[in-house]
Amino acid sequence: MLLQRSAPDALINLAHESIHEVLREVNGVEYIMLCSTDGFELTSVHRKNINNSGKLAAVSSSILAMVQAFLGEINLNGCQSMTLDAENGKALISAVPSHNHPMLVVVISAKDVMLGHLLLAVKRATEQIAEADQNYTQ
Asked: What is the distance between the alpha carbons of residues 61 and 66, in angstroms, rounded to a whole number?
């Protein structure tokens, strides 16, 4: 059986709508990308263009893997998301809890984004994607 790097088009389209809803709902969100856990961009929505999205997908995947390894070393399991707070904005990386097609969501936002609102919206989106993913098999 040949393993796919990408999820089925129907799932990516649904995921696109889910992340687009986050962009519409949360003020201050500038860019959202869905990527595979092996570092490939699947889809994105944005108010501000990111020129190096391929590199961003690869780096985000590596960061999530490193943080998961770190948490394992300190006996914390199941890293779901991480938030990075910089002088000029915030970044959020969140795992999509799906078994058939593991993915992650990367969000770039303004510094003054309402973080609780963003976290809740991203959680809803990742849960929608994971629920839809249950309808697909590898």
From this structure: 9
